[in-house]
Protein 1
Amino acid sequence: MGRRNFLRSSAAFAGLGALAASLSPLREIGDYSSVDEFMQKYYKEMTPDDMSKVIKRIENEVQRQYGIRPHVRDLKPMDGVEFVYCLNLTRCIGCRKCVHACVAENNQSRNPEIQYIRVLKLPHGSMDIEKADHLYNPEAVPQKGFFYMPVQCQQCHNPPCVKVCPVHATWQEKDGITVIDYDWCIGCRYCEAACPYWARRFNFTKPEIPKERLNPNMAYLGNRPRKQGVMEKCHFCIQRTRVGRYPACLEVCPVGARKFGNILDPDSEVSYILREKRIFIQLKEEMGTNPRFFYYFEK
Amino acid sequence: MIHATRDYLTFLWRCARIAFVGDWRYYTWMGGLTVFSLLGLHAYCNQFVHGLIVTGMSDEVSWGVYIANFTFLVGVAAAAVMMVIPVYIYDNEELHDLVIFGELLAVAAIIMCLAFVTVDLGRPDRFWHLIPGIGQLNFPRSMLSWDVIVLNGYLLLNIHICGYLLYCRYQGRKPSKWFYIPFVFIAIVWAVSIHTVTAFLYVGLGGRPFWNSSIVGPRFLASAFSAGPAIIILALQVIRRVTRYHITDKALLTLRSIVQVSMIINVFLLINEIFKEFYSGNLHVASSKYLFLGLDGHHALVPWIWTAIVFNLISMFLLILPLSRSLRWLDVACVLCIVGIWIEKGMGLVIPGFIPTPLGALIEYTPSMNETLVCLGIWAFGLLCYTIFLRMSVPILQGTLSKANEHLPEPEAGVEHSPVPAPH
Ligand code: SF4
Ligand code: SF4
């Protein structure tokens, strides 16, 4: 019996040792989460008081990590406003300036690289995006015989991404913007599979942004730095557009291909375009997603 | 009341104890599975810390082998009903006690399913957001929320049925019908639902033409009802070999006819799908082209899917031929069927849905080493659970672990081969 007991306890010890060794990578866990973040309520259930605490927590975290005190706001949609975007395909030259302005404005990870806008190069006469070239890289753009189509979140009226999210972490706001609560998303990536426009991006690891590149003007549902393991995407620059400014991609466009505004205001530029231009396109119209993003052709 | 609780705790304690008792084969097998489980745990901890970047997944192919294995195992779990139906609806005596083994397999498979979903999450620490009441479960709109409910429900149902029947047997009393027959019937419907809901998870995505087809649901069921019972056929033979538990050939052959019919339906549906995809030749065929023929020089899945199809076909012919009435050939057919369906339902279904992306980019996917280790770990853990369940239930069904012998000394290593407890 003595020998048997001895064998038993050595087996138990070996087992515990092996278990500890298996768990050893957890030592590098770092600032994965915090008790406050773990316990945080759902966005729509937070009182203003809760929100100000959360904002304080985020500001502290950003300061600790980047050495800059950011200004984080919880901007609500404005009454009587519904945003739409119009993009003039005749003008777009495929320079990708919008892509990089977006990365800078919205604190996207530089390593690994995350970009919300994908510019497609298409041969004249075709709208079949299966023929699109994503990685074109010539000496100079535009190239003859091609046109360029930047694609980002289309802010659908019937967003499939919202429908599939198992925890309501993504939803459509009154002004038409589909937002994500980065602190509520569980990272299942179902929305990414559901989006017909490949607009969503996932943080496969901890995002890296150089300190000096951080944009300190932040919104909770907008460009505040994301954590590892959550989804993000274009949100029409909430931190700008909800205080009356234009999105970063529009401001940077050198040829004025991008138009943005309030469709509920009949005098806005976008209302004019959708009223007066004869040809405009909603991408993959047959999906029934009814995008708030319109492409049109015009000299 | 106190008495009943004490009895129940003794029962649990004795079950737990017996899981640690066995002969050298048992220890080797369990030791090996433990090693693999821990390797998987190690790989998972690594993923937990560094993020899903340690997998082969990307924004282009955002689900990989985790979800593939999940899908396959939901089918295995659902297939347990294919043993329940003959027993409770057609009063098939041959399979009566074996139902427990099928249901225990379902329990183990669901445990693996839940593990595969969990390791796929970017933020597993936030799983509580899924719990109704305290979280924000998007029910009934999100198919994933349906899946959470039906999988957990199925797990509870099966635990209840097996647990109750085994405990009654342990106590040597007749199970009261009201306590389990209604649940058995609920479980039959439920089993179909877990697999249908899982199919709807894919079918519901309008932006992915490869999945957005009504045949996916029926194909899921057909393939599950062939691979699941095939696994049970193999498992029963292992049980028969390593324990004294008596399982008749006739029972195995009953299961054979289930696999046979399901396999024929499965292959038939596959032909339907291939025809529809390729004959009409519309623009959305790109994913199928990628899967079956390769697209623009990308053909990572082509050898896999053809292996799967060849395996399925051979297995189907073997099953149709009287040859597979001999167990050796039946086993070959079962193995081919399981492997074929695992490829076809897992990688063959999940990955091509992402290739090309909705914007037409062709990015391929290969699972990483870390990812593979996590998968192996979960499979090992699932087998470990199943072995423990069997280790507990076989002696109960045989009567060597029962309330009647509660006061006799516990069996030690090797003794479980004797139908009566050895006198000390
Ligand atoms: S484009 Fe994609 S991410 Fe944006 S609202 Fe539509 S479905 Fe959602
Ligand atoms: S990844 Fe996040 S936002 Fe997307 S469906 Fe899952 S929980 Fe919802």
Note: The mean pLDDT of chain A is 94.
Protein 2
Amino acid sequence: MELSEELSHYGELVKKKLSEAGIVIGDRVRVIDDTRVYEGILMPRPILGDENAIVIKLPNGYNIGIKIREGTRIEKISKVKHELKTSIIKEKTANNKPKVYIIGTGGTIASRVDYLTGAVYPALTPEDLYELIPELNDIAILETEQLFNIFSEDMNPQIWCKIAEKAYEKIMEGYDGIVIPHGTDTMGYTAAALSFAIRNTPIPIILTGAQRSSDRPSTDAALNMICSTIAASKAPFAEVAVVMHSTSDDESCTAHRGTKVRKCHTSRRDTFKTINGKPLAKIKPNGEIIMQTNDYNPRGKDISKVNLEAKFDDKVALIKVYPGISDEIIHYLIDRGYHGIVIEGTGLGHVPQNMIEALRRAVENGIPVVMTSQCLWGRINMNVYRRGVELLRIGVIPGEDMIPETALVKLMWTLAKTRDMKEVREIMTTNIAGEINVRSHYEV
Amino acid sequence: MNENLNYYEKVGLKVGLEVHQQINTKQKLFCKCPTIMVENGNFKTIKRFLRPSKSELGEVDPAALFEYMKHKEYIYEIPEEASCLVELDEEPPHELNQEALEVALMVALMLKSNPVDEVHVMRKVVIDGSNTTGFQRTAIIAMGGYVNDEEGNVEIKTLCLEEEAARKIAETEDKVIYRLDRLGIPLIEIATAPTIKTPQQARRVALRIGRILRATGMVKRGLGTIRQDLNISISNGARVEIKGVQDLNLIPKIVEYEVQRQLKLLEIRDELIRRGVKAEELESQIIDITEILKESKSKLIRKTVMEGGGVYAVKLRKFKGLLGMEIQPNRRFGTELSERAKLMGGVEGIIHSDELPGYGISQEDLNKIMKYMDVKDEDAIVIVCGKYENCKRALEAVVQRAREALIGVPEETRAANDDGTTRYSRPMPGAARMYPETDIRPIPITEDILNKIKSKLPEDPEETIRRYIVKYGLSRKLAEELIDSDRGKLFEEIVAKWSENATLIASTITYTINSLKNKGLPVENIKEESLKKIFDLISRGEMAKEAIPEVLEYITVNPNVDVEEAVKILGKGGISIEELEKIVREEIDKAKDVIRERGMKAMGLLMGRIMGIVRGRIDGKIVNETVKRMLEEELKSLKQS
Ligand SMILES: [Zn+2]
């Protein structure tokens, strides 16, 4: 870390006093004002709060903030020597263990805490993982790569492509499974993207993450990582899946099909749910995999059919309908040259009357419009009510029981292949990667 | 006391105190749940594990490792009305409770402690399951200040605001059950420097801090709402932390017993050195002696074998006689080994050679064991029964503790027993593992907040006691009783109007009410208004003070009856002097013969009869004066005639 960067959240007065005394972050300092004297290690400042309050770590481990005024003295006591060390545990090599490749994208599945400075360091080398989550040792031989290090919310279709390319490469190299640690916010989108981008994968491609940061003893990352590695190593299905806590308990994880999964809670461990389908499997940390459906692509060895189709057209918009919505939004998209629109309609797939003309204009301009429902649960049916029939007549494509986010990703993927309206309709209404179930089951 | 001080000075006693007090805020420290306890219900539960977070140096905290080694599963009961996703570690903490912060600052100012300018909440790693997160959120609010005491002021090190842990409901070999109602209740932690010099001083400092906390009127009362930890060490001994002391009066005893314990452990150490024992000679070689004892008549051993377990032993070279040595009342060195064995191995206890023959193990059995294990006369052995894995862990812990005897006093955390002795609970945590709680932004302590609190700072309780003594003439004991029972405010309200009855008022609202409470009566039915009415009646002479307990008791059981009515029902309505004189006249007339015969000596008899009629309805003193006066008049007129 650059020192100037570390000091960056301090105000001018503090910066001036520190530079005069030759103090940098990590030095042991003494702060003296009228009545008080404090000694401790100078810490970086959090972004929030008073920029002229310096943060020091006291010998008892606590941080406190002290307001620096003109008359305050800051003295340097000593430079703190502090080296980062990692103790390396040799992996127990056993050739019969499955080989799993881990592609880091950001979001930490394991980390170490530097209690001296309070900093949290992500850990992704196999050695780190074996040490922090020793159970992994017994499951698989891990190889790791930090492909990206970005926040979940900064994910985009270009990065989906890079991840897909890397996964494809590793499939071709013969790994038994792939685990992709990923921030949870947009994990569902990436899961859908990989489901379409990698055709006929013979091995499981597992996305996982943490709702509680990996630096804390209660993190969900450990169980998620253990179950993901188990799934990657030996699950009978060869699909893209999200593997995360089944419930709030640290008991088992659920593998959700990549095209049917959605983040449904801002903070709970069991935030991911399968919508309009059954989850693939329940996975226990003891290695047990209990399939929840018979309808899955089986694991195989044949890599000849694997196909990489990692292209996405990002000129696609997802619009949620609401009472009073204006048709201007649709006209804007047409005028700005968008290539496709997914509507999150009300109920069975409806929009208000005032949007009909705008949508007709879109279709007439060669912009496919796909209808999904903001109910999330259930299937689109535009034949029941008159408004639906009108929409069908102008050429809106029913998105069946696809969740809106999956329909968006699928339309991006489809438009990267073809802009032909007939072909787009054909692809969008055909099940490609488990995103459409033609039968709606009572029990999901 | 001086002699005492000399003794403790000589052994180099140093005591530090940590007081933990729950604050009575409406909401918890980091969420909006109420701070209530839920006793009954069918609670939903969740199951969790915690893993020690390794530091950048790859090392694990000894205390954290100790909990992890037990490999327990944690079950959390979820009372709907007193917990939310924050307690479940399923939602980030909300901002720090401002009300709690203000109470903490108030206490800080009362202790002359310096508030920090910006509060930074930290995560202190604790993995015994008592926090769902695996850490406790804690922040320093102020530093410095002091508690004044007759044996010298004691410095305050830190004043922290932290979250209370979940409460433990049950524990078995492989799991611990906690309830989440208590988790997150705000707690003030006040830590003194280790400069307390005597056992009595420790008690006084704890009492003084407790009174200051209560003076805020914002702390929780009742069992478990205030707890003190004691750090105790002597020269050449070690810092031992005794946690969770609830009764202040137990503190001096705990300190005395810990001094005794450390001195005895140092004696044992010296004896081991004299015997030439080396740590490396203490091997944890565990020997299976099940076969050797197959003929034994010991019920314990037969039961073990029947249940498929075994009997295992280790040899402690040159330890003979030391295991039976008493180090605290009724607790021997062997007890310390046994506690470790129980905790680490889950065995029921140990049997050691200093108490053999015994437990049904005969001299003959013992001889066989000694021969088989090649035990010399100077050695000791420790035996445990059960599953091999458990026994192995238990005996390894025993040997570990025996090795520590060579150093003298091991640093450790202990828990207080009711008699003032202590038991082992876990190794002393290493340097606190703390890192910033990044989910909560730093909180500035502004001049405005401090001024607001200064303007409503309560009176120092020492000052209040002095005022009660000087202004109202209360005894020190009664004044302290008022403060400690939290009834100072009530006292001042009542005494403001009837100040001539200060002592009576004070003793009524402390001793009298307490004794009714001890009888099991619902004293919460005594309203402030009723007390005021009682003193009003007394001052008007319409009720005698002797009737107070009876009237109060009546009100507790009949809460809908008001004081005047109760007085009437009980026949305790006051009588006037005229009425009294009439009664006295009648009684004198009835007793004329006796009066003639015995003169003033008839006073006792008359008083008895008259009090029987008027007791509780008029002040006894007035009765006495009236009877005396009228008897004298009677005798005078008799003489004249
Ligand atoms: Zn809550």
Note: Residues 84-92 of chain A have pLDDT under 50 and may be disordered.
